[in-house]
Structures are given as C-alpha cells and as structure tokens.
C-alpha cells in the first residue's frame, strides 16, 4: 500500500512535464519570413566611396531546426572581391518585432530590427558611420513571389538618407 502514494506523487509531478513536451509551433508572423526561403540571385550597385561598382551574389535561405528562424548564407563578388555573409531572421513575439542578425567575412556585424508593412520590409540599425553616429536602413520591396528590390541607406547624425546600395534579387530555386 505504501507504493500507491509514491506512484501518485511521481505521476502528479510527471504529468505536467509531459503536457509541456509538445514543442511550440511558429505563429503567422514567423511564417511571413518564408518569402525568403530558397536560393536568390542578387545584383546591385554600390554607390560612392572608393568601392563603387557592381556586386553580384547568391543568397540561400532555409528554416533552422524548429522553424522559428530563417538561416541564410550569402556569397557575393564585388569591387572588394569575394564576400560571405551568414544571417538569421526571426520574429520576437514578446516585442512584436522582427530581427535580422548578419555577420560578414569582412568583419561586419549587424543587428537590425525590422517591420513589414504590406509588401515592404524595413530594417534599421545604429552604428558609427565615418566616426559619427549613423542609422542604417535596408528597404526590401516584394515585387512578386520570386522578385524583390532593395535599397541600403545611411543617415549620419540624423541627417538626410543617402543611398549606399540599390539592387534586385530573383528567386532561382
């Protein structure tokens, strides 16, 4: 008879754990990132500075395990030669914002916050631009299910936006 209370205690402790064993599922906001799934070919122009010129590259995106984060690998060639980037896009339900984390082979690290309005993604982050505080903005306009345009801009110390790059990307698979 002593075993019955022990079994009841063990089961009462184990059942809540079993109920939480179901993994969470990504919500509809996360699913909006699915637009970027697949492989994209990009072409853009780098404007101004000593590295002006044409850049072309490929960006391959897939869901990370669990389906909450979009993991992308980019390889491009431009005026500075070959460049690689790894990026992660996610949605934070607690703050109702998107995030875009990028690391690059040139040492660049970007952590941007984003939003989606209609067919336009906007990503913003702050850092030093030419030694002064600057805000950077990436705007991606979804032209079709297989094409988008993008602009990368800079605003130094709250001044006007200056276009740094402009381009387009096409889904190839």
Provide structural commentary.
It contains two helices and ten strands. The chain has a single domain (25-171), classed as Lipocalin, CATH 2.40.128. A ten-stranded antiparallel barrel has the order 1-2-3-4-5-6-7-8-9-10. It has helices at residues 3-19, 28-31; strands at 38-46, 53-63, 69-78, 81-92, 97-104, 109-117, 120-129, 132-144, 147-156, 162-171. With 173 residues, it is mainly beta.
Provide the CATH top-level class. Mainly Beta
CATH architecture term: Beta Barrel
SS-based structural class? mainly beta
CATH homologous superfamily heading: Calycin beta-barrel core domain
**Percent in strands:** over 45%
C-alpha termini separation: 65 Å
- Sheet with the most strands? 10 strands, antiparallel, barrel
User: How many helices?
Assistant: 2
CATH fold name:
Lipocalin
């Amino acid at each position: 008879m002593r075993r019955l209370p022990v079994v009841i205690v063990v089961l009462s402790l184990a059942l809540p754990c079993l109920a939480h064993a179901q993994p969470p599922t990504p919500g509809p906001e996360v699913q909006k990132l699915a637009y970027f799934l697949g492989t994209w070919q990009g072409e853009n122009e780098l404007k101004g500075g000593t590295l002006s010129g044409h850049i072309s590259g490929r960006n391959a995106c897939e869901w990370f395990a669990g389906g909450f984060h979009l993991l992308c690998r980019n390889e491009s060639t431009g005026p500075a030669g070959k460049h690689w980037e790894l990026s992660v896009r996610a949605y934070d339900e607690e703050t109702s914002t998107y995030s875009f984390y990028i690391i690059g082979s040139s040492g660049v690290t970007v952590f941007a916050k984003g939003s989606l309005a209609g067919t336009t993604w906007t990503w913003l982050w702050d850092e030093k631009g030419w030694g002064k505080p600057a805000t950077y903005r990436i705007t991606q306009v979804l032209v079709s299910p297989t094409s988008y345009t993008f602009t990368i801009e800079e605003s130094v110390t709250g001044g006007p936006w200056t276009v740094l790059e402009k381009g387009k990307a096409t889904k190839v698979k």
